[in-house]
Each structure stands twice: as C-alpha cells, then as structure tokens.
Records
---
Amino acid sequence: MAGTDEEAVAAADDALYVLTAALLTPAQFPSVLGDDYAEACSALGLPPTADGYGLVLGQDGEGARWTVVVDDVSLVAVAIASWDCGMEHDLSPDERTVVAALPGWPLSVAVAAPNVPAPHDPGPEAAAGPPLTPPDTGVWGPAQRRLGADEIALQWAVWRERVDDSTFPAPRGAAGEPGGTGDRAEGDGERREGGAPGGHSGIRRALAEARAYVASPPPLGRVRSSFAPGGARTLRADGPGWSLVARTDDIAFVLLDEEPGEVLPVGRGPELPGLLEALARMAVRPL
C-alpha cells in the first residue's frame, strides 16, 4: 500500500493544513474514482473495509500535497456536515486513527493553505510511492460521466425543469422505452428534440443492466440511495459505461460514455417505477 511507511505518515502529520475532506464508504465515496466502493478504494491502494475511511486533504508546512486516510469516519463526517452548514470546524484526526498518508491528492482542490508554498507533490525522499493525481476530466470518459451524474443529483430541480414530459413517446412496453428517451439535454444546458426510433439503445442497455442488479447484487456501492423531498429517494446507479440518476417518485437521467456531454431523460412509463423501487430497496444508504 503506497504511503503507509512511518516516514510518510510523519511527514504528512507534521503541521498538516487541512483544506477539505471526503468520505470513502460503501454509501458515500468520490464517484470520480470509480463505479463502486471497491474500485474507488483500489484507486488509492486501500482495502475496501466494511466501515470505510475518511480522507483528509491538505498541505504540510512546505506546501506539499498529502491525503491522510483515517478510520474515524464519524470524525470526518461531522466536519463535512459542519462545513456544509457554513460552520467552522477543526478537523484534527488523532494519530491513532491514521491508516495511511498518501502523497498527492486524488481529487481536485481549488484552494490552498495560506502562508505556505504553492501546492506541489512531495519529493521522492518524503513519499513511499508515486503521488496521487485526480482523474483526467478534461475529456469525456468514465470520470467525467460520473461527475456529470453527481451534478444532476445535486441540482435535480434545475435539470428536471429542462424536461418537458409531453415530449416522451407514448408507453410501449419496456422500461426506458415506455417513457421514451424524449429530449436530449446537452451538457451545456441546451436541448435537442427527438430520440432514436424505438428507444435509445444505450439507455436500453443501461436499464437492462440496472434490472440485472436486482436479481444479482452488484459490487457494493454500484447502487446508492440518499434523501429526497417528499419521502422519495434519490437513486444513483453506475455500471460499465453508464450512470443513472433518478428519484423514486419521478423520472431518471442516464449518461453514457459513448454519448459525450449528453444527459438523456427517461420517462416513468409502466416499468420504470417498479425498477426504481427495487433498486431503492437494495441500495446502500448513508448511516
């Protein structure tokens, strides 16, 4: 495991200026790192434990980037919740909770610690392995597709307003086709009318694989569920080449690797509601 030697831990722990943090658990993990929890852990060289980890991203006194992995998930969760509410919170993990100190950052961080050199990777003498770097999201691919799905989940109301339900084709029988593919919402917010006759093959494939998850559970974290207003749940499912975001009381959106920048809405139809409810029952939920 990269960065777990005592020298690396000591280097990262020496006056670490915390910039941000993230959870790495079966129910909540940076989806940019992978389609499921185990894949995200693998990106950091960590074993996928049942309880997961907290990731603390910061700079040392020389400005070097470090990601400190701790097993005190609650400590990190409280800090993140406080920051999200606009409250100050000092995140100072106990040394006994440190699992690893990994050079670099696996996620993009737009801020830097004051009064220290600009962020840079630690030198080879301080790190036990190559530094972590964020996945390349400059071109469309799995990482950017998952980030797009994250954005839709966070801004559901905004994306939902762009969909005119009257443009969905009439129900015809199969999930995805029933509600149709309707409009295509471009990544820049524009829309193109129409869809492939008979339904979009990529959407049919994604929904078929999502249905297969119900019969044969996928790797942990492939299907996740979170709070939504009105007693509904926000569902997030990922698979090879596709991501799905949905509300259990509403429609779904699908993003595909082969459709750069496209956000494809899927109407409810006769089968989608049942599929979403089944996925919600098997989904991993935050504690």
Note: Residues 142-282 form one domain.
---
Amino acid sequence: MSKILIIMSAADVWERADGSTYPTGYWAEELAAPHEKFVDAGHVVDFASPGGVLQPLDRHSADPEIAGADCSRHVRHAETALREFGAPLPLHEVDVDDYAAVLLPGGHGPVVDLHQDADLGRLLIRADETGTIIGAVCHGPAGLLSAVDAEGGWRFAGRRMAAFTDEEEQLFGTAEGAPWLLAARLRERGAQHEGGPAYEARTVRDGNLLTGQNPASSGPLADAMLDALG
C-alpha cells in the first residue's frame, strides 16, 4: 500500500482576457475516477492545494449534457471523498517524498494558479528527480509549467504529454477570450504535446510522467498510474 497525493487548484474563477470572469472549480470525473481506482487498489489518498483551500465543484461537470450520464455518480464520489478527508493539506507543507505518486486533475483552475505556483514547482521538480509517478489530466498539465529551475529552465521541456487540446477548448466554447491556451503554451515551452481526437480518451506516458487529454482520460490515466506503480 502506497500514498498518493491529489493536488487541486484553489481557484474558483478564471479571469478572461477582457476582464470578465468565468466560474471554475474541480472537474468531478477527473477527481473521482482516479480517487476511486486508487482507493480500490488499496492506496491511501491525500488532497492538497495552495493554502489548503478547498476548491468548489465546477458545476459544468455536474451537467449530464456536458459531462455525460454518469456525472452524478462522479459528483457524489468526489464530494464524499473531500468531505471525509477534510481540509486539503497546504501545498507548502507537503513533503513529496512521502508519496509514491502525485496527480493533478483539471477544471480550468490550474491555468489560473497552479501553472505559476512556486511550491508546486519545487514539489514537481523533486518528484521528477526521485522518479515519483507524476500524473496530470485535462487542464491539470498546466501545473507542470510551474516546475521552473533557478535559471528559468522548464523541468518537463522535451517530454511527451497529453493535455486538453486547443480544438477541445474551442469546442467547449472557452477558447475565445482565454488569456492563453494550454496545449499551445505547453508546445511553446518545449513539450511534445500529442493531441488525439476531441473528447476521446488518450493517455501518454514518458517515463514517470503520465498525462491524459480530457475528462474521458481520467480513468485510463489512473489505470496507467497504477500499472506504473506496479
């Protein structure tokens, strides 16, 4: 039995390029599906976030017309898991050496805060140095952008990864007015972003780094992380 850390954003709004705000929060399936698989496999799961803030649910992920017929089950599981755990651990207090794997789920929050969170950056650099399994799904890979060293080099430059594609952002209706688009930014920083068909499950593994493209990739990514953990 190992410990796995799920690192959430603390953001509840996404400021758009025109100054308007878009409500956000954690995406239920991206938190619930991996959590359920990790716990069923016998692992202990902790939650952490910047400042220990409990991010709200992204209500879009509770809408069956957007998130699918199974979304209510994901919402119930996520809300129960978070309630039973209690307040997330403050990210700056986390010792990543205590964990065999870390997971960054999405919702738009990571493009608001995690992409530039220095505590997360230090944690991810340490995790990568020690070969800890690092998983990220949908907008979660934005958090990888925080892993910048003292010289400004990005730890994950050159690595293969999946993430929510620019096409998916356009189809979702949030590309226009976005301050920046995730897949494009990852490529700009030097990632080998590998996009598949919109909203179809896709996971990519590059060593200890495992990533998923969209909400449908959440369960398959968790399975891949469990396989990597052996």
Note: The two ends are 11 Å apart (CA to CA).
---
Amino acid sequence: MPSRLLVSQQLGPTAARASMRMLRQSPAIVEGLAEDLGRYPFSAAGGLVTGLPVYFALENQTMPTYFAVRRGRHVPLVVHEQAHQWFGDSVAIERWRDIWLNEGAATFMEHRWTETHGGPDAAQWLQDEYDARGPGSRFWQMRIADPGHDGIFATPVYLRGGMAFQALRNRIGEDDFWLLLQTWLREHEGGNAATEDFEALAAEVSGESLDGFFDAWLHTGERPARTADNGLA
C-alpha cells in the first residue's frame, strides 16, 4: 500500500527531523490498529506535518495533518489520528451530535495501544479517570451524545466518550466488544451512522439490554453509578 510521509519545507532542521521521526511510526501504527479494527479502509496511508502555526491535528482521509514537533515520539497523537481513518473517515457520523463516536473511539484506541505496548491497561485508565472526578465535577454534566453546537469539541466528548468505550468493553466482554467494533466498521464503511445505530448494534451483538448503560454514559448529565451494569464494578 502506498505510504506518503511529508514534512513542510518551511520547518527548520530540528523540527523537520523530529516531525519526520513522528510520522515514520504511521505504517506500524496503521498495521497494529488493523489487528483490532479490521482491514484498513483505504488504498493509501501516510501523514503530513504542516509549517503553519497550528496546534491541533486533523484526521484528513489517508493523510492526517499534524503540527510540527521538536522532540518526542508523540505516539498517542499518531494513534488517535490514524484511528480516525476507521472512525470518522470511513464511517462518518450522521449528525454533529454523534461526534463522540469518532472522538471517543480514537481516544479509547490510544489507551488500547498503550496496553498492548507495555503500558497500563485501558481498564485501569478508565478507573483512574473515573476516580479523579467526583459526582459534582462539571466534567459529568455534559450529555455527550448531544453536547450542543458549542460543545462538540469539548473535553468530555473525547474523554468521557473514550471511557464509555472501555466501560462497554467491561460490560459486554472482550469477544463481543471487538466483534461489535469490527461489525460496525464493516457494515457502515463508506457511509454515515448515528448513536442510535451503534446502540442497537451493541445490543444485537452482545444479546444484552444496554439501554441503562448508554443512558448513564451518553444521555445523562451526571456521573455514572459505580456498578457492573455501567462497566465500572
């Protein structure tokens, strides 16, 4: 598969070398993500580091765009943007309110990558993030399945969304969870899908009633109770 890794000529030598070092992780990361998510959905891959003064990355199809770096490997960043090739670029959301499906999945896959490459497992990450925020925290007040037009890129959409994926993994078990993600990506490849579609498929694949789980994690502006039904016990 063709792989293009491009760094802006506007960058100085230090930033150019560090940025290319970051990009060169992309092929291995794409290959690793495919082991969990199924076949890479496009015929080319790669990445581009811009010389523009931006401080965010963007999941452009087959060529994620990154800001320039001067040191470090920035593995979670590359994992996040490459995960979007599946969640967001291959399967697009039906409405902006469904954006947790993209950002939550990409955030979760960062921690999945960490657990498979010598770091803490994603279940521990979920527990740590949950414990760090009490019931009164503003973090829990956003209904991430409908965050409002001012909230679509808010931290809870990414973080609580990612936590919801791991909590669902805890709730329905390893085999059903990965079957769910692979089925979701295969059935909706090249199309659009909504939160309700994901909820219905999760119930179908697992054979469980998950209305209470999704209400707690996606549709309620309060901290999910620490229960097995919510993937937290």
Note: The chain has nine helices and five strands.
---
Amino acid sequence: MVERVSTVTHLLISSFWPILKAGLLITIPLTLITFILGLILGLLTAMARLSRMKVLDFIARFYVWIFRGTPLLVQLFILFYGLPSIKVTISPFTAAVIGFTLNMGAYNSEIIRAAILSIDKGQWEAAYAIGMTKRQAMRRIIIPQAARVSIPPLGNSFIGLVKDTSLAATITLTELFQKGQQIASVNYEPFWIYVEVAFIYLIFCTILTYLQGYVEKRFEKHVAK
C-alpha cells in the first residue's frame, strides 16, 4: 500500500510540469487568440444584426444560427477531418483557432447585441439631440455603456472557453488535456492523471474568475466616479 502511494505520488509530481507546460504554451494562447478574434467577430456580427440593411442582418442571423445550432466538436471535426476530403488540409492549431473563433463569435455576438439593446433609448435620443450621427452615438455613447454591461457574460464566456479548448485534443492538438491523455496511456494511471488535469484546469479558472471580479469592480468604481 505504501509503495502504491509512493508510486502515484511520484507520477503526479513528475507529470505536473509537462501537463502545466502544455496548458501554458498551448491552452492559454489558444484561448486568448480565439477569444480576441471571437470578440471582434462577435462585435461585427452584432452590428450586422442591428443594421438596417436586410442582407447584412440575414447573413449575420444565418451565421449565428449555424454555429449556435451545431456542436463545437462537430465543427472541429469538419475543419480538421472533413476538409482534407476536398483537398484542404490545415494544422491542428489552425483548425482549433478557426473553429473556436467562429463558435465564440456567434455566442459573443448575442451577448454584445443584448448589451447594446439594453441601453435606454433616451441615450440615443440625447445623442441625436446634440447633433450626433448614429455612428457617432454608437461609438461615443452606446458602445462604452454596452461594454460595461457585457463584461460579466463575456468573462464567463472566456472562462468557459478555457475548458472548451480540451476538445482540441480530439483533433490531435497537444494541449493540456491531450498531454494528460498521452501520460495516462504510458503510465496506465488514468484516474490520477485526469484528476491532476482537472486540478490544473481548476487553477486556471480560479485565477481567471478572480481577475474577472477585479475587472468588474474596477469598472464599477470608474462608473461611480
């Protein structure tokens, strides 16, 4: 029994850094890149949804419908395993970036659109009363207020994305979860290795939750002033 505990302890200690390193070098960068791109795409899509041009509204609605209505895992499989059948081959990291960005863009667009619509109509009227155009009102008055409203749901979306990146393991990307799988397949200790993987995800998400709370408080103070 003592020998068993010693073996498991040694395994957990020796595997901690390789798994954490994969998280720092692949999982976190993948999360940051796709969230930023998804945020930009989400903003553009939200603007298209709110546009008076029916063509833009239709395209945006169709895009959101597709990517919110299909599983992220299936989207990744189409990109990585499906595209080669039509002579288009991309790397695992590229497929992950494209897949997560398109998926995040669809969800973020709804968060941003809802935040913009939540701004009182009186804000628009006041902007028009002092001679602003719709674009100026949106940029100077509506977007700054909507940004504050959207911080909590976007923060939750970002934390959720950290965990969703584990799906990239299914397209052979050696991120945090995939590294854990590789170690478990060699050492035949899947329970303890996966517990360790979960613990590292928990560390990441706990830190991000704290940072989210800090950012929200900073914005509240800024608004109060």
Note: Residues 57 and 94 are 28 Å apart (CA to CA).
